[in-house]
Design brief:
Blueprint: E1 3-7, H1 11-23, E2 27-31, H2 34-43, E3 48-52, H3 60-69, E4 76-80, H4 85-93, E5 98-101, H5 106-121, E6 124-126, E7 129-132, E8 137-140, E9 143-144, H6 149-159, E10 165-167, H7 168-172, H8 180-194, E11 198-201, E12 205-208
Parallel strand pairs: 1-2, 1-3, 3-4, 4-5
Antiparallel strand pairs: 6-7, 7-8, 8-9, 10-12, 11-12
Helix pairs in contact: 1-5, 6-8
Length: 209
């Protein structure tokens, strides 16, 4: 059962969303302020965050930024009455995956939640490689392959961002002892192991074509 952390201080709306998601077999923890949400995120591993922005204690924006700074990559959806483009831009800038403007039909949120989990659970096919993001199962030519921790972290960054240029700083976070040399060695090893077309974009980072 997928676990969802819902941060909403509007009692009626929060209860309605929780009831709807629970009816759809999601395990939903509802909290009313940002501090409680932060505590919950440390205590439990959630599969999805749904945060209102204007809430007591810590705003949804501050909360998600703190989580992303702590390398928490849990998918997140903002629900907010802030509908100006600046607020929406800030939401995505701190790491949101989606942004729903209030007022909205709860069923619309359910559609977005279901779509997000379908996206997360969908296997990624790349040439002769198949990767399941939910189980971390990696296959090449239909044979399971086990990578070391560093290689696995690097591979996931590349495969989830196909065609995008990844800043070098993001990839360095995958290394136990980060350095430019160590990163080049790790990437070359990954390229050789899986026959990946990883290109170095000079002065910026790397991309998996």
């Amino acid at each position: 059962m997928k676990k969802i952390l819902l941060l909403e201080d509007d009692i009626e709306l929060g209860d309605t969303i929780q009831e709807l998601l629970v009816y759809e077999d999601y395990d939903v923890t509802l909290v009313r302020d940002g501090t409680k949400a932060l505590d919950e995120s440390y205590d439990v591993k959630y599969d999805l965050y749904i945060f209102d922005i204007n809430v007591p204690e810590i705003s949804g924006l501050e909360l998600l930024k703190s989580l992303r700074d702590a390398e928490d990559k849990t998918p997140a959806i903002f629900i907010s009455a802030l509908i100006d483009m600046n607020s929406i831009a800030k939401g995505f800038a701190v790491g949101a995956d989606d942004y729903i403007k209030k007022p909205f039909f709860p069923e619309e949120l359910l559609i977005r939640v279901n779509a997000k989990f379908m996206q997360i659970n969908k296997n990624i096919i790349y040439k002769n490689i198949e990767y399941d993001p939910s189980t971390k199962l990696l296959k090449k030519d239909d044979k399971s392959i086990s990578l070391g921790e560093t290689q696995s972290l690097l591979f996931e960054e590349f495969i989830l961002n196909l065609g995008k240029v990844l800043d070098k700083s993001i990839l360095l976070e995958c290394l136990e002892h980060p350095s430019d040399t160590a990163l080049r060695v790790a990437i070359n090893k990954l390229k050789k192991t899986l026959d990946l077309d990883i290109q170095n974009i000079r002065g910026i980072g790397y991309t998996l074509e």
